[in-house]
Amino acid sequence: MRQANQARAEDIAADDAVGREEQIAPAPRVSVQAFCETVETAAAIQAAGEDRRMAKAHLRIQMGGLTAAVEAYQNSPTPNVIVLESDGRGEDILAGLDQLAQVCDPGTRVVVVGRTNDVTLYRELVRRGVNDYMISPVGTLQVVRSICGLFSAPDAKPVGRILAVVGAKGGVGASTVAHNVAFSISHDLGLDSVVADLDLAFGTAGLDFNQDPPQGVAEAVFSPDRVDTAFIDRLLAKCTDHLSLLAAPATLDRVYDFGPDAFDTIFDSLRATVPCVVLDVPHQWTGWAKQTLIGVDDILIVAAPDLANLRNAKNLHDFLKASRPNDQRPVYCLNQVGVPKRPEIKAADFAKALEDKPVAVIPFEPQIFGAAANNGQMIAEISASHRTAEIFRDLGHLLTGRTESKKRRGGMLPPWIEKLLG
Prior knowledge:
The chain is an alpha/beta fold. The protein has helices at about 1-20, 40-50, 65-70, 90-100, 120-125, 140-150, 175-190, 205-210, 215-220, 230-235, 265-275, 285-295, 305-325, 345-355, 365-375, 380, 385-400, 405-410, 415-420, and strands at about 30-35, 60-65, 80-85, 110-115, 130-135, 160-165, 195, 235-240, 245, 275-280, 300-305, 330-335, 360-365.
């Protein structure tokens, strides 16, 4: 019995690990009520409610299973989603659902958690209008996938992936990394992509892509009621065939103080229309910046090799890892490495502190970076064969999940860095 339970636990862990690699559309603002028989299932559903993709859903959990659900809705309306756990046999589950149907409002979606692995039962549940059936014990990502999947049409286009690039400290070149990675994703992978410059006061994306659009992200964030896919599309500036820019105004005629959810509708609209969105997140710690980083699909932290960057990168990495337990851990890269005569923190010290190697080490190349910045071009446009252009291509592949990190294959880091990390 103990071995069986351990095997099932391992299956759940494996399922969760696989889930970190897949794309799950966030749930909309819905109400979810769960009626559980066991504390294990209640704990899994509670953990699912804390997942970033369930942030907009209002979750309530109580014990009692099907019987409690039938009693609860005798004199009260049902929520958007009901999750029901039953320890009974198939006949008991079906009988309980028949009772629930008499008090359930039309349009309510129902998910059942049971212990019976039976195709006949599953077919009967579907015939009665049950939207999903999970076999216990359930894992956190199973619950997230099930509830979020209720609101994704089977023939819907894949949800766009949102990547955030943020600096561990100001001036480390995070914006340059973000713009070059976005260019690589659009150019080398052929993915339609958008760079969103979230540094409204001092953003440099317009300069880096040699664009001066009359409108951009400010028009969207200050007019949330107007935001939809068509409105966002009108704000985008075309950079290349596959890359568009949602530019920052980079003016100081007003202040840019926002609430935590100020950018949510913008991100939702971008997700619905673009396969890949790269957010250039400024180095600041506000409610919206924190929520943005927690809510994206993947995070790249850019750090320079000094002590303040090491501390900040570790703080960011540890916080985001703890806040996103069902997602891939944030990755980080070192930038501006090898400045002549400058004492630097070794890559091995970063790896030890963050318990992970950097996915890339970008050398200090002032000539090519300076030329690119002054010309409004990307590194690959100046020299496609340059070693730094190759690093950005590898980062683009890694962050979109198109290939295994070369760092883990031993090919993305320069040989001298590999020796340091030993």
